[in-house]
Amino acid sequence: MSRWAAILAGGGGTRFWPLSTPTKPKQLLPLAGTQPLLVQAVERVSELVSPERVLIITGSALRSTITDLVPPVPADNVLVEPRAASTGPALTWATWVASARDPSATVLSLHADWFVPNAQAFRASSTHAMEIAERHDVLVTVGIEPTRPDIGYGYIELGDEIDNDAFAVTRFVEKPDAAGATALIDRGALWNSGLFAWTATRFFTETTAVAPEIAPHVTLLEQGDVEGFFTNVTPIAIDFSHFERSARVSCVPGRFAWDDIGTWNALARAREGDAHGNVLVGDVLAHDA
To answer: Of 116, 121, 202, 217, which is least packed with CB atoms within 10 Å of its CB?
Structure first.
């Protein structure tokens, strides 16, 4: 059984304008260190999977830049979406590519725009998630212990423990209000990080069972018609198309610090500030700031 990584790197990063542009969105910027976020993501999984098994899903405008940024990853592994259709279709395509090359593939799915200061701890949790996906034949989501009642994240309520540090999922709650987020945290809910694992076999079984927006069009991928697949699918996030509908979902708590670099405020958590809390990068003069 071989292990693959699918890195979602197609977002426009519009919330970081004017630093971020359509041809250089946030995942290509060094927002959480000296290297672009995508480079950090590839390096983070480098000890888990070989570069030949890293797939990067992105848009046509970014392909050449990404190929230059991460030369260890083969150019054929940079998958260019004919149109943006959210994460459900994108990860279906990536999983199909992995399974076409190796029918026994296990896929770890992650985003390119995260801040993860401890790569070793990330790899340990990711390995555990893939092991649970293989051993229990389930879709696995990695939940993060919340550090604040953030209304921009989804939450996971856990059920019974099914294995060592792996749990059934009672329900997902998407972006509650502040009071709801606080109540969820008080009950032990975790953030839904968007770090997932599955075997290709289980993924496509669940696609057929619960994802009507995607399932009828998988045959187009089998025929090599990627453009037709993206033309016909209904855009939908993987959280909704698979995880919230499937009865075969488990959660592994992620034992690592994690943050989604989604807004300017996130930089204050990813970078050290000065005595006044200002995050300064480069040649900057701050006066009464």
So the answer is: 121
